[in-house]
Amino acid sequence: MDHTKHQHHEQHAGATNGHDKHAGHSVEMFRRKFWLTLVLTVPTMVWGEMLPHLLGFTPPAVPGARWIPVVFGTSVYLYGGWVFVRGAWGELADRKPGMMTLISLAITVAFVFSLAVSLGFEGMPLWWELASLVTIMLFGHWMEMRSISQAQGALKEMAKLLPNTATRLEEGRPVDVSLSALREGDLVLVRPGAGVPADGVVRDGRSAVNESMLTGESRPIGKEAGDSVIAGTVNGEGSLRVEVTKTGDRTALAGIMRLVAQAQQSRSRAQILADRAAFYLTLVAIGSGALTAIVWTVLGAPVAFTIERVVTVLVIACPHALGLAVPLVVAISTTIGARSGLLVRDRRGLEEARNVSAVVFDKTGTLTLGEHRVVAMRTAEGITEEEALRLSGALERDAEHPVARAIVQTAADRGIASPAAMGFQAIPGLGVQAEVEGRTLAGGGPNLLKKLGVAPDGALVTFAEEAAAKAQAVIYLVEGSRALAAFAVADAVRPESMEAVRRLHEMKVEVVMLTGDAQAVADGVARELGIDRVFAQVLPDQKVEKVRELQAAGHRVAMIGDGVNDAPALLTSDVGVAIGAGTDVAVEAGDIVLVRSDPRDVPRIIALSKATYRKMVQNLWWAAGYNIVAIPLAAGVMQRWGLVLSPAVGAVLMSLSTIIVAINAQLLRRARL
Length: 673
What we know:
By secondary structure, the protein is an alpha+beta fold. Helix content is 52%, strand content 18%.
């Protein structure tokens, strides 16, 4: 395990602020240079020596025709090729010779040699090869930057989620103001269909808000007074009055954008490997070019042929695709994750997720809602579960006890409308009593039954004993001397937890639950979900020990948590996953942050990790592997059999590999999470 994992966050800036081959460049610049260079290349090819010879045509006779390739070829070098020469200076200044150095070396050698021949040196000039080489290289760079720009476009799309203005209520009157004018505590009106301008809490109104752009959850989320809303989400058909709690850089959307940008820049192990491979490939290319020059010179080949071989070797070995192989996959996988509610803080965390063999869930708030609900119920003969919940919901509506609130909330969750209760009164230490639809009802625990002298039937007694064995609270609904129903109340399991555990088992991952609750409570949840191993009655400071215990047994551990006391365990685990709905401390400790409190996102992280790694490996093989065949061909080892690659063909092959790598990376978007 990498125990220094938690230091990576601080190192990102230093790791990514070094030389960038595209610093100061833009998609538009390469597009513009490509098209103009293409226009300049056409006369170079038409009045050059090679193309007329190959195609057997005579170019139009014009005054000074022999200087046309010289003028246009030089223009191509100075206008189109200078961006590579400037990039090479940057690489050499950083002592990191790479693809810009190779391209620059190739086109400069071709330019100097062709100029010398045009001024009287014996040989065939390489003007058309030079021009076509620069044109193809510009096209390759244009496609590369376009791909990366598209991959990082999610950040721009996120920025567009925010409305341009907000409607602030000033003394009850709506006034349109800029977002920068909003302050915490302001009351804003969010009209139907409008974007939410800042994070806040609903003070009045009811609506459904579409949060899919931030959470990946397609179903609109109901909002009413007391519920929180997130900047950038879209209001539905209702009108909301929202009190602003966070603005500008402090909103959840701004935080997500920072995490995405940081993750796209963070260096993974695969990126470091690719950079090292590109560096060594540059040295191999320069060495191969020098060896090619020496061998052909010793063999007495014409200077023009030797120079052409050297230029072709330098071009074809250019580690251009290698430089694109990993960053493009990184950019795409990070934005896919962000759109699905999976925010990658540290690339290494996502990279490591594919090797996870055990997932440790903190129970409360992660596998469970962290709120009490009716988890099971039994009714007496002649009364349905729905009727029992309807009556109990009415009876308990005004009660303050958390268990009473659990019954009311469960009825609401199931869409059961409860009637009004009359004459409500609390029976201290025992329960509540009220009149519902003319019936005198009471609700409470076993002590209430003793007080009222009620003996429940056998089925209810058995049910209560089973619930007590699981450390669940039991509440009875009583009418007169008869118990109508018994409700088992406990921290409710999230509806999504079952599917999350099932998917992890399909991936051959062991599922472990960690909780401070009693063993009986933990075992009940584990049985319901099919969890493999349970650590119960674990104190907060013991969570790290349990994670290390699993690691000592040979597991690669992912820890899923949401509380302050989970932070040390998140840092100790191989992959720390913080539930975004949890505390800021937990979020800062996690490698990956889940925007939603949905455990199903955990297997999706592993699926994204595996798909990302697959694409990286495919791209690295394609980017570097073809050189094994291409460099010898470029050097002319097959010349005896008439198989010789020209610099232009070398440039086509090199650019083709770049484009294939870019397309292959884009296919990651089809990965099923």
